[in-house]
Amino acid sequence: MTTSARLFLAGAVSVAALLAADNATISGKIVFKGAKPVMRPLTMDATPACAKQHAKPMLSEEAVIAADGSLKNVFIYVKAGLPAKTWPVTAQAVTVDQVGCVYNPHVIGVMAGQDVKFTNNDPTSHNVHPLPKINNEWNQSQAPKGEPIVRKFNKPEIGLLVKCNLHPWMRVYVNVVENPFHAVSAADGTFTISGLPAGDYKLAAWHERFGTQEIKVKVPAGGKGTANINFK
Ligand SMILES: [Cu+2]
Fold first, then answer.
1. Structural domains present in the chain
2. What is the pTM of this model?
């Protein structure tokens, strides 16, 4: 074998070892048990430009629960158990669109220092206004279909409420964490966190109305862990 072939193989082996070290996955499903709260319709009558974008009144997203109890918009993150290191900030921005005078998505997760991009696809102005407890407060107006607002939140903070000063029903929750291992439950309640090293983890699951649940999950290298979480 030539020297270059040996170097090539050594490189391939170390890349494979690195991939194997960080390819564990935790997935699960979030379910709400009990009597489902009734969601009120969002009243947009004062702003026809918003109201006329909805064929029927939109319901508050304070609790989005499917018929089978699947709970959407729960933020799940690794709270403890990761190796002590600084994780590189995810380069890609997380986009929050404003369309129909509603923030979409309603809940996001980002890393501290990661870009959050607020876009306006409405024919009306908005004013993006985070109300943090730990990060810095700011507010910024945005013209109809105006330039995106790109900002970072630099400190970890769960459940950071962002409102619109012009439309009081608009709200999005930004969850800021220090690692890339987080997810938001889908309409069917499921979530997946991948790219994890093997470990003994504590996950936290946060919901704007139902609070926080914690669960312990053990995942072997390259393996899968399951974290099914119930709220009530
Ligand atoms: Cu608005």
1. 3-231 (2.60.40.420)
2. 0.91
